[in-house]
Design a protein that fits this description.
alpha/beta; Elongation Factor Tu (Ef-tu), domain 3; single chain; 254 residues; 7 helices; six-stranded antiparallel β-barrel; 17 strands; Rossmann fold
Length: 254
């Protein structure tokens, strides 16, 4: 159990909760969050090191209960779990859609601390939904914006803007986190250019340690073998962008 230090609004229906405690975790790893009496669910770490924290979207009963927590309240955490991102090369492209910026945010800071030059494509529905834009710019990233409605940056999808950036510049590695359709397209762009790629995937997670099988994809577990997968692994995930397991364990379209 750990005490909440701060809880702030980021963009509509998205909040960041932080704690006055250190956490050794790689960007892309996650922790299981327990709201006593309500539910337990996974969350990507959005701030690492001292004063670690999570950034989440208010969707179901669990996150609604978490959103009501105030400084001084306590919640349960366990982890970190899974495999995070790793910095490869000196010129990297990161592509994040929506809440995909939660794990990408600290990874931008880590990559720049490792002396990498970072181009970051952020995609959102509108300018009011852009997450961690200023944080990334302050860290030193070159930020490219794509919005569905054209209210800021390029009108269209993050994957389309990423394709344009990849024509203009050469990169040593590409990283992606966001909607699965976006990830699949960014993967294809990287594969076509022979650029190493890492992508963070999302699946239903109940246990977080590879026991319950709810996050299975092609015989692998997103919670234990991922959430971040390498290009070699991504190439054999035939279910990526096509199928996932629902709460009952039935395979359904993504």
């Amino acid at each position: 159990m750990i005490e909440v230090a701060s809880h702030v609004d980021e963009v509509p229906a998205v909040k960041t909760i932080r704690f006055d405690a250190p956490m050794t975790a790689a960007p892309g790893q996650f922790m299981m969050i327990w709201v006593p009496g309500v539910d337990e669910f996974p969350m990507s770490v959005s701030y690492v090191g001292d004063n670690f924290g999570f950034t989440y979207q208010i969707l179901g009963e669990g996150t609604k209960a978490l959103a009501a927590k105030k400084p001084g309240d306590k919640i349960g955490v366990r982890g970190p779990y899974g495999r995070g991102f790793s910095v490869r090369g000196k010129r990297v492209l990161m592509v994040a859609g929506g809440l995909g910026m939660a794990p990408i945010g600290p990874f931008v800071e880590q990559a720049i601390a490792h002396k990498a030059s970072v181009d970051l494509v952020i995609g959102a529905k509108s300018k009011g939904n852009l997450l961690f834009e200023r944080r990334s710019m302050d860290a030193g990233a070159t930020v490219h914006i794509a919005t569905d409605d054209g209210s800021k940056g390029t009108k269209g999808f993050a994957s389309d803007l990423a394709a344009s950036v990849m024509v203009q510049k050469e990169f040593d590695a590409v990283y992606a986190c966001g909607p699965e359709a976006m990830i699949v397209k960014v993967m294809g762009l990287a594969f076509a250019k022979g650029i190493p790629v890492q992508a963070s995937l999302e699946r239903l997670m109940k246990c977080g340690i590879g026991i319950c099988d709810s996050c299975a994809i092609n015989g692998m577990h997103v919670c234990k073998d991922g959430p971040v997968f390498s290009e070699k692994e991504l190439k054999i995930l035939s279910e990526l962008g096509r199928a996932k397991l629902d709460l009952s364990g039935r395979k359904v379209p993504v």
